[in-house]
């Protein structure tokens, strides 16, 4: 079986998929997506395509290495790794279909048959992607134009959003905040904690709440996680800048709240660094 071509599929409003076709009629799908940077990842997928044409798609590890080592010594980086990631998914998809088994069988079998799903929650009305939306290479927030609730406080707007999502049936919510990375701004910490407390009062204790503070400063992260402990959070995500793996242990050891990190780490080596630094906690 040989790879015959790659096709980019642009999915509204701004998502990207790649389909890999073969001479056996088996195709695989993957998602080579980098948030808010779809077009540059598409360009990288197209750059990698000639390396794959005529190759056996079931030789997944060899092709991964071939793509990773291409580019005159420039390895890694978010654009290249996102492109490789989507292609890698599609190769595994083809391999599973070729052998007639789900991909999880090739990776050691299922660990569990159910998984908790959360819904992102912001201080704006929840939205859904409507049929017929055009594809655009911009962030979803800029496309939806949701500005309802103006005049209400951030706490009220976020609580209202959480209440709607709970009515939709979601049992876990992740609250998103973009706190400043400047030490000169402290007032927004009070607002963040107030929003979390407001949501907890609104949905009660039967719904899990996680919080994403999007890579803030160390002192701010330490302050936030400590002040949010009474709200009984499922986890706090991305407390530090993605480059500061070396400092993550100080956050994990400062709080009983589980800390989630690694969303923007590219490749296995960053995770090894985190393990070696003692940043991960079971």
UniProtKB/TrEMBL annotation:
InterPro entries: DgoD-like (IPR034593), Enolase-like_C_sf (IPR036849), Enolase-like_N (IPR029017), Enolase_C-like (IPR029065), Mandel_Rmase/mucon_lact_enz_CS (IPR018110), Mandelate_racemase_C (IPR013342), Mandelate_racemase_N_dom (IPR013341). The keyword Lyase applies. GO terms for biological process: amino acid catabolic process. The keyword 4Fe-4S does not apply. It comes from the Bacteria. Residues 155-258 form the Mandelate racemase/muconate lactonizing enzyme C-terminal domain. One of its GO terms (molecular function) is lyase activity. Keywords: Lyase, Metal-binding. PROSITE patterns: MR_MLE_1 (PS00908). Pfam families: MR_MLE_C, MR_MLE_N. Coiled coil: none annotated. This is Mandelate racemase/muconate lactonizing enzyme C-terminal domain-containing protein. It comes from Paenibacillus montanisoli.
């Amino acid at each position: 079986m040989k790879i015959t071509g790659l096709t980019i599929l642009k999915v509204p409003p701004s998502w990207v998929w790649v389909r890999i076709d073969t001479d056996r009629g088996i195709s695989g799908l993957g998602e080579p997506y980098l948030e808010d940077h779809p077009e540059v990842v598409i360009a990288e997928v197209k750059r990698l395509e000639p390396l794959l044409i005529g190759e056996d798609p079931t030789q997944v590890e060899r092709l991964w290495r071939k793509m990773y080592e291409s580019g005159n010594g420039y390895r890694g980086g978010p654009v290249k790794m996102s492109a490789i990631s989507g292609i890698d998914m599609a190769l595994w998809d083809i391999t599973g279909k070729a052998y007639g088994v789900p991909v999880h069988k090739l990776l050691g079998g299922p660990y569990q048959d159910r998984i908790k799903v959360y819904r992102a929650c912001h201080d704006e009305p929840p939205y859904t992607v409507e049929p017929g939306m055009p594809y655009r290479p911009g962030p979803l927030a800029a496309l939806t134009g949701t500005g309802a609730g103006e005049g209400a406080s951030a706490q009220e707007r976020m609580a209202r959003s959480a209440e709607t999502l709970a009515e939709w049936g979601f049992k876990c919510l992740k609250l998103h905040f973009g706190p400043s990375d400047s030490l000169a701004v402290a007032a927004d910490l009070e607002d963040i904690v107030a929003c979390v407390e407001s949501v907890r009062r609104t949905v009660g204790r039967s719904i899990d709440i996680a919080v994403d503070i999007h890579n803030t400063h160390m002192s701010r992260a330490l302050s936030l996680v400590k002040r949010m402990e009474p709200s009984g959070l499922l986890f706090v995500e991305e407390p530090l800048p993605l480059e500061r793996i070396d400092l993550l242990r100080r956050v994990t050891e400062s709080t009983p709240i589980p800390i989630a990190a690694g969303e923007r780490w590219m490749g296995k080596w960053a995770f090894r660094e985190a393990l070696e630094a003692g940043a991960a906690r079971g």
